[in-house]
Design brief:
Helix content: under 10%
Mean pLDDT: 81
Strand content: 35-45%
Structural class: mainly beta
CATH topology of one domain: Jelly Rolls
Largest sheet: 7 strands, antiparallel
CATH architecture of one domain: Sandwich
CATH class of one domain: Mainly Beta
Length: about 725
């Protein structure tokens, strides 16, 4: 046996590495021999990152790296379009070809250098939702803490994204990198003034951009109406945030209206190298910057350039991707209404199909449209109105009143009509009453959705195709008699509106009563549960014209179950309004004339002197008792005189004032002259769970001497001064 030479451990390691390297080279050569040569079709073009000169290069890049061997260069890099270049809307940049802009083909659309979000079946890519959990002590003890904040979260609902402001602040976030200065616009609904809706643009360090253009407190919108906000954006990263908070709303109302956003559009982003296909239910022609919605009974699929018609036994709602077989007609596919009086003074109940009709009369099990009811005598005219002919009632002319038989008479000398609005009979809509339907999102109301006269009441009506709607009833009033006045800082009512209502809610529904007396529609009262007939009254303190609104919301804005059984229950939701009476109007109907002790003019009675009322017995102007005032003109009865509060004194018979001095029961005199003006006092700084700062502010005046203004109370969360000083939200209480 021969002895083998010894090998050190270092030599062993080197020997093993050489073997591994040799094996790797063999495998690499073997793989290279099996790969094919690359062709031009194996490459596509991309732009490099922008250089310091604002330019970039177009370079070839393998479509699938490692799948072929580049035998030769597919082409040298070519200087591309500048980084701030963008095509016009309806065009795309052909980076694979001539690097020029071309029209989008039919069935597609493009914003050029922008992006649009108007499909909300799910949260689009790039968006994020962050909801903060706030402890009860942050908002006060009146709100019950709820662990589940899902109802407040921003939630996609098909044609819009929504958030119901609650005790959990919810944020919708999106980051956009702009290659050049651009814009952001969004369409929204925001109807609850007691909730907070805020929009802000932040930089890449989540710091608010120091500009009035990038921080918005959206204006309140009317029920069902959409508004648009547009702001300028800077080049670079922009973090967009939409925020809702509703704790204050929960304190005041038992229900909160949602905030809706249906379209967000951003310009100034990167170029568009290909056009976007139109979504289902839409279509477009060549060079389009948006897609059109397919009308009712037509449909389209993804990327369509036209809509197709449904078969005669099928139907499709606007914006549908397919047709659906028409179901058999049911009792929910027609409505009942009372016909106007005919020339013989007769009326009858009648029935009509809800249009557009989606049911199929010839289907098995379909109901038949009921026949008209029997002819009956028309109801009498409403109080203060007279018959113009056998079928129509109207108010009497100026300086007249209507008796119980509906006949007009001129008021006697030195008297004036006492005008009111008093609607008891609903055969037709009066001239100053209107009804319509407002739909959220892209949904379209059926032709008959609204309120229908039904004899002794007016009731809501809607079809199976009505989703997320407001059924609105409007009463327009020209104004009220008398002048505005206050006693002890409290306004004196010039009028009272009273109505009877009834509500039936098989599923969540809501009836709102609103007034625009303060310049914008504000919710005065809401009802959310089934309620038997009951009366509601509200005092009016202005003498200006106003509009009273009743808005019925049959469903729960997407929170209800989509099941057919739930839909059938929703169809039974109904609101009814019976008699409506508004007193002391300047234009309406009168059933009596009242005395004018001081004489009268074309505008009515000449008012009694300040501090005097009309005595019903003597029909003369009498002075109010000592220490009382009469803040409005032509008031009847001594009870109209109001006593001044402790420490206040009558001034001119119409108002109570303080001389800024007060004497207590022990004879001590207090001088508040230095506190004659309105003072602003702020509370402690508070914080939400995320650290957002806010505080409460109070306008206080301990006395009101001379012509100093009274303190006012407003919801002033948009105060630029306070935001600049403290970066918080001010709520004047």
């Amino acid at each position: 046996m021969h002895n083998l030479p010894s090998v050190t451990s270092t030599n062993c390691v080197r020997h093993i590495l050489n073997l591994i390297l040799s094996l790797s080279l063999v495998l690499a050569v073997t793989k290279e021999e099996t790969l094919q040569q690359c062709h031009l079709d194996d490459f596509h073009y991309e732009y490099t990152e922008c250089d310091i000169n604002g330019g970039r290069w177009r370079v070839p890049v393998p479509k699938e790296p490692g799948m072929c061997i580049a035998s030769s260069s597919p082409g040298a890099p070519v200087r591309g379009k500048d980084c701030n270049f963008a095509c016009n809307p309806g065009e795309y940049l052909d980076i694979q070809g001539d690097q020029e802009c071309h029209h989008c083909p039919p069935g597609t659309y493009s914003l050029g250098g922008g992006i649009r979000f108007d499909e909300w079946d799910e949260l689009p890519s790039g968006f994020a939702v962050k909801t903060e959990h706030v402890t009860p002590s942050s908002w006060g003890s009146k709100i019950q803490h709820k662990e589940n904040c899902s109802r407040s979260e921003w939630t996609p609902r098909g044609s819009y994204i929504m958030s119901v402001p609650g005790q959990c602040p919810s944020n919708l976030l999106f980051s956009a990198k702009l290659i050049m200065a651009g814009t952001l616009s969004f369409e929204y609904q925001y109807t609850d003034p007691e909730s907070i809706f805020h929009f802000v643009v932040q930089n890449d360090q989540c710091q608010a951009v120091d500009s009035d253009e990038t921080e918005k407190w959206p204006e309140i919108t009317n029920e069902g109406r959409w508004s648009t906000i547009k702001v300028n954006l800077k080049t670079g990263m922009n973090v967009l945030q939409w925020r809702t908070i509703g704790a204050l709303s929960e304190l005041i109302h038992s229900s909160v209206s949602p905030v809706l956003i249906r379209k967000i559009e951003i310009t100034g982003v990167a170029y568009t190298s290909e056009c976007t296909k139109c979504p289902n239910g839409t279509y477009s022609g060549e060079g389009s910057s948006f897609c059109l919605l397919c009308p009712a009974d037509q449909f389209s699929v993804h990327g369509a350039n036209k809509c197709e018609s449904c078969k005669s036994w099928e139907y499709a709602e606007p914006g549908s991707a397919q047709c659906t077989a028409r179901p058999p007609c049911t009792e929910f596919d027609y409505y009942e209404y009372q016909k106007p009086c005919n020339g013989n003074g007769k009326t009858q109940m009648s029935f009509n199909w809800i249009e557009p009709r989606i049911c199929y009369e010839n289907a098995s099990g379909s109901v038949v449209l009921p026949s008209d009811g029997p002819l009956v005598g028309c109801p009498p005219c409403n109080p203060g109105m007279h018959k113009v002919n056998a079928s129509h009632c109207d108010f009497c002319e100026t300086d007249h009143y209507a008796d119980s038989d509906g006949m007009c008479h001129v008021c006697p000398a030195l008297t004036s009509p006492n005008y009111n609005i008093d609607y008891k009979y609903w055969n037709v809509l009066p001239n100053n009453v209107s009804t319509h339907c407002i739909s959220a999102g892209v949904d379209i109301c059926t032709n008959t959705a609204g309120w229908l006269p039904s004899g002794d009441h007016i009731k809501t009506s809607f079809g199976l195709g009505d989703h997320n709607t407001f059924l609105v009833l409007l009463l327009k009033i020209a104004g009220f008699r008398g002048s505005v006045g206050t006693v002890d800082g409290k306004p004196i009512a010039l009028s009272t509106v009273t109505f009877d209502m009834e509500l039936k809610c098989k599923t969540p529904c809501q009836l709102l009563f609103l007034s625009d007396a303060n310049g914008r529609n504000a919710v005065l009262q809401s009802w959310e549960k089934t309620s038997a007939r009951k009366s509601y009254s509200h005092e009016i303190f202005t003498n200006e014209s106003l509009t009273l609104t009743w808005a019925f919301q049959p469903d729960d804005f997407g929170f209800g179950s989509p099941e057919d059984s739930e839909q059938m229950l929703k169809m039974q939701n109904v609101a009814k309004i019976f008699n409506i009476k508004v007193t002391n109007v300047i234009s309406g109907g009168a059933t009596m004339c009242q005395s004018c002790p001081e004489g009268k003019t074309e505008d009515g009675c000449i008012p009694c002197p300040d501090g005097q009322y009309v005595d019903p017995k003597s029909q003369r102007c009498e002075s109010c008792p000592l220490g009382t005032v009469l803040p409005r003109s032509n008031a009847w009865g001594k009870e109209a005189c109001k006593p001044c509060g402790h420490g206040l004194h009558p001034v001119g018979g119409r108002s109570c004032r303080s001389d800024c001095h007060f004497t207590d029961d022990m004879g001590r005199v207090y001088d508040f002259t230095e506190l004659d003006k309105v003072r602003f006092v702020s509370g402690s700084r508070l914080f939400t769970g995320s650290g957002t700062q806010y505080y409460h502010g109070f306008n206080i005046s301990l006395c009101n001497h001379g012509t100093q203004p009274l303190p006012t109370c407003v919801n002033n969360v948009t105060s630029q001064l306070v935001s600049a000083l403290l970066g918080g939200k001010m709520l004047n209480q």
